[in-house]
Specification:
Layout (H helix, E strand, L loop, with lengths): L1 H12 L3 E2 L6 E5 L7 H5 L4 E6 L2 E4 L2 H12 L2 E2 L9 E6 L4
Antiparallel strand pairs: 1-2, 2-5, 3-4, 3-6
Length: about 90
């Protein structure tokens, strides 16, 4: 039950599109990150910004999980190369 609540919360918190300074790239398929167990126990929350697959900002205890998730995402093809930044919001279920 807790897993289902967490998955639903992550689906709501995760962006529907990625922000690019020139254009918005739609996300075809996204994968929710696995909340690191240590970060959960320490009650660490926050937004982690990932540029393509490299963390730009956010808590380092959450950045690996955010990068792993974004590695698995599928984006709609674009006509040219672009760098996409996405925000992954980690929030503990109440």
């Amino acid at each position: 039950m807790q897993l289902a609540v967490f998955a639903a919360a992550m689906a709501i918190a995760m962006p529907l599109h990625a922000a690019d300074e020139h254009t918005d790239r739609a996300i075809k398929q996204r994968v929710a990150p696995t909340y690191p167990e240590l970060a959960k126990r320490m009650r660490i929350t926050g937004v982690v910004r990932v540029s393509a697959t490299k963390t730009v900002s956010g808590n380092h205890m959450l950045s690996g999980a955010a990068e792993d998730a974004v590695h698995k995402w599928k984006f709609v093809p674009a006509s040219d190369e672009s760098t996409v930044e996405v925000d992954i919001n980690f929030a503990l279920a109440q």
